[in-house]
Specification:
Helix content: 25-40%
Shape: globular
Largest sheet: 7 strands, mixed
Low-confidence stretches: 1-9
Bound molecules: NADP nicotinamide-adenine-dinucleotide phosphate, magnesium ion
Number of strands: 20
CATH topology of the largest domain: Aldehyde Dehydrogenase, Chain A, domain 1
CATH superfamily of the largest domain: Aldehyde Dehydrogenase, Chain A, domain 1
Distance between the termini: 58 Å
CATH class of the largest domain: Alpha Beta
Mean pLDDT: 96
Strand order of the largest sheet: 14-15-16-13-12-17-18
CATH architecture of the largest domain: 3-Layer(aba) Sandwich
Radius of gyration: 23 Å
Strand content: 15-25%
Number of domains: 2
C-alpha cells in the first residue's frame, strides 16, 4: 500500500487546502504560502493560508460537531482512533518521506517519529473507554459525592515544526478520545504532514467538523481570534516559551483551559561511576535525535572531572563520524536544520561560547554547501556561566562543562528557568534516584537517553510548561470533573 510522494501525488494525497467541516477548501481570501525543502531550498508545494474568517468557520464547525461527538459511545470514538493508527502504520513510508521533505530530518528519524506518532492513536484508542469517575460517601455521611469526567469542549491545538506528525497526534488522540472536537493550527515550516494525518482521520471515520486543520501564515491573528471565541474552551500549545507566554495572556482574557508544552534546556549529567559506553550512546540519542531540534535535546553536558576528558574524546569521535546530508539519503545520519535563521542562531551561540573560552573539538563552523547544514559540534572547557548554556540550542551542538561534586552537579542542572527533562548517568542506584528527585524537571532519563513514550506523562515544570501529554494524564487534559452532590 502507501502512495508515492512524487510531487503530483503529494498534492493529491494532501490537497494543500484547509480542512473545515469535512471539506478541503482554499482560504477565504485565496491566500497561499510555499513549503520548502530545507535540504536544498526547493519549493515542495504551496498550501492555503487560513484567514481569521476561516478560523472562526472552523470553530463554528467544531462547535456543531462537539455535542454529537461527545455523545458518541467511547468505544466507537476509540475505534476511529484505532483505525487511524492502522492507516498510519500502513501509510508509514509515505508519511515518513513527507516528514523528511518538509522538515529535513533523516529518514531513520522520520520513520521513528511516524511510529511514535501512530502509537498515540493506538494508546488513546485504548484510553477512550477509561474516563473514569467515582462515587463516595461524603465524610459527614449525609450525602454522596459523584464525580463524572466530561469533555472540556472545542479545543484549539497549535503545534511546532520539529515533530510535525507526533505533536499533532499527541494532541488529537486524547482530545478525540475524551469527546472533544478540534481545530489544529500546524507550524508554517511543516504543515503538510498534519494535512496527511487529517486525511487519515477522515478515512478512519472521524465525522465532519470533529477534526479541522488550518495551516496559516497569520498564526497570531488566527489563533488569537479562535482563543477569544467563547465557543473555544481549550488551548493546547506546543512550541517556544516565548510564544507560549503570549498565548497564556490571550487565554487569560476568556479563561480558557490551557496545556503548554514549551521549550527545554536539558542537562545531561555524567557521574564518574557511570558506564561511559552507555553514557556516550545515551548522549548521542539525547543530543542527536532529530539533529538536536528537539525540546528534549541534551543541551548542557555536565561531566564529573575525573571522566570529563575521556567522555569528551569519545563523544567527539562519535559526533565527527556522523554523515551529514539530505535526510532522503538513507546513509545520512544528520540532515539540515529547519531554515536559514536556525543555522545563523546555532552559529551565533557557538561563536559566543568560543568568545567565552570554550574549545572546539569537532565542527564549529557552518558548512558552505547549499542547504541549511550545520556540522556536529562538540565544545569542551565551556565555562559554567557561558551564555550558550542559557539558550535552547536546537541544533547539533554539545557543550561540555566539568564538575566536582554531586551537590554542584544538581545546582548546575537546576540553574535554568526551564525544567522539561534531565538525563543522569550513574551506576549507583541510590545516587541516581536521589539526584533524579532533586532535579527540577518534569521528566528524568536515568541511564537512558530517550524518555518519550505515548504511555508516559510528558511535560515540564518551571517555564517549560503546564500540563502533561501522553499516558492517562494526557486524557485528563481534555476532561473536566463534574461533581454532583446527591442524596438517596
Ligand atoms: P514556535 O515558534 O513557538 O511556534 C509554534 C507554533 O506556534 C507554530 O504553529 C507557530 O506558527 C505558532 N505561533 C507562532 N507565533 C504565534 C502567535 N503569536 N500566536 C499563536 N500561534 C503562534 O515554535 P517552533 O519554532 O515551531 O518550535 C520549536 C519550539 O517548540 C522549541 O522551543 C521547542 O522546545 C518547542 N517544543 C516543545 C515541545 C514540548 O513538548 N515541550 C515539543 C516540541 C517542541 P507559525 O509556524 O506559523 O509561526
Ligand atoms: Mg520547510
Amino acid at each position: 500500500m502507501g502512495r508515492p510522494t512524487n510531487d503530483m501525488q503529494l498534492n493529491a494525497a494532501t490537497p494543500g487546502n484547509l480542512l473545515i467541516d469535512g471539506h478541503w477548501q482554499p482560504a477565504s481570501d485565496g491566500a497561499r504560502f510555499d513549503v520548502t525543502d530545507p535540504a536544498n531550498g526547493e519549493v515542495i508545494t504551496n498550501v492555503a493560508s487560513a484567514s481569521v474568517d476561516d478560523g472562526l468557520a472552523a470553530v463554528e464547525a467544531a462547535h456543531r460537531a462537539f455535542r454529537p461527538w461527545s455523545a458518541t459511545p467511547p468505544r466507537v470514538r476509540g475505534e476511529v482512533l484505532r483505525g487511524a493508527y492502522e492507516l498510519m502504520v500502513e501509510r508509514g513510508e509515505e508519511i515518513a518521506e513527507l516528514i523528511v521533505r518538509e522538515n529535513g530530518k533523516t529518514l531513520a528519524d522520520a520513520r521513528g517519529e511516524t511510529a511514535y506518532a501512530a502509537e498515540f492513536f493506538r494508546w488513546y484508542a485504548e484510553e477512550a473507554v477509561r474516563a473514569l469517575g467515582s462515587v463516595v460517601t461524603a465524610p459527614a455521611g449525609g450525602n454522596k459525592i459523584i464525580v463524572q469526567q466530561q469533555p472540556v469542549g472545542v479545543a484549539v491545538l497549535v503545534t511546532p515544526w520539529n515533530f510535525p506528525a507526533a505533536m499533532a497526534t499527541r494532541k488529537i488522540g486524547p482530545a478525540l478520545a475524551a469527546g472533544c472536537s478540534v481545530v489544529l493550527k500546524p507550524a508554517s515550516d511543516a504543515p503538510l504532514t498534519s494535512l496527511l494525518i487529517a486525511d487519515v482521520l477522515e478515512e478512519a471515520g472521524a465525522p465532519p467538523g470533529v477534526v479541522n486543520v488550518l495551516p496559516s501564515r497569520r498564526s497570531g491573528a488566527v489563533v488569537g481570534a479562535m482563543v477569544h471565541d467563547p465557543r473555544v474552551r481549550k488551548l493546547s500549545f506546543t512550541g517556544s516559551t516565548q510564544v507560549g507566554r503570549i498565548l497564556l495572556h490571550e487565554a487569560a482574557d476568556s479563561v480558557v483551559n490551557v496545556s503548554m508544552e514549551l521549550g527545554g534546556n536539558a542537562p545531561f549529567v555524567v557521574f564518574d561511576d557511570a558506564d561511559l559506553d552507555a553514557a556516550v550512546d545515551g548522549a548521542m540519542v539525547a543530543k542527536m535525535r532529530n539533529g538536536g531540534e528537539a525540546c528534549t535535546a541534551a543541551n548542557r553536558f555536565y561531566v564529573q572531572n575525573t571522566v570529563a576528558e575521556d567522555f569528551s574524546q569519545r563523544l567527539t569521535e562519535r559526533m565527527a563520524a556522523l554523515r551529514v546530508g539530505s535526510g532522503m539519503d538513507p546513509e545520512v545520519e544528520l540532515g539540515p536544520l529547519i531554515n536559514e535563521e536556525a543555522v545563523l542562531e546555532v552559529d551565533r551561540l557557538v561563536q559566543m561560547a568560543l568568545t567565552d573560552g570554550a574549545t572546539v573539538t569537532t565542527g564549529g563552523e557552518r558548512l558552505d554547501d547549499e542547504g541549511c547544514f550545520y556540522p556536529p559540534t562538540v565544545l569542551t572547557d565551556v565555562p559554567a556561566d557561558s551564555e550558550i548554556l542559557d539558550h535552547e540550542i536546537f541544533g547539533p551542538v554539545a557543550p561540555i562543562v566539568s564538575f566536582d561534586t554531586e551537590a554542584e552537579a544538581i545546582d548546575l542542572a537546576n540553574g535554568t528557568e526551564y525544567g522539561l527533562v534531565a538525563y543522569v548517568y550513574t551506576s549507583d542506584l541510590a545516587r541516581g534516584l536521589r539526584v533524579s528527585e532533586r532535579i527540577e524537571a518534569g521528566m528524568v532519563g536515568l541511564n537512558r537517553g530517550l524518555v518519550s513514550d505515548p504511555a508516559a506523562p510528558f511535560g515540564g515544570v518551571k517555564q517549560s510548561g503546564i500540563g502533561r501529554e501522553g499516558g492517562h494524564e494526557g486524557l485528563l487534559e481534555y476532561l473536566e470533573s463534574k461533581y454532583i452532590a446527591a442524596d438517596w
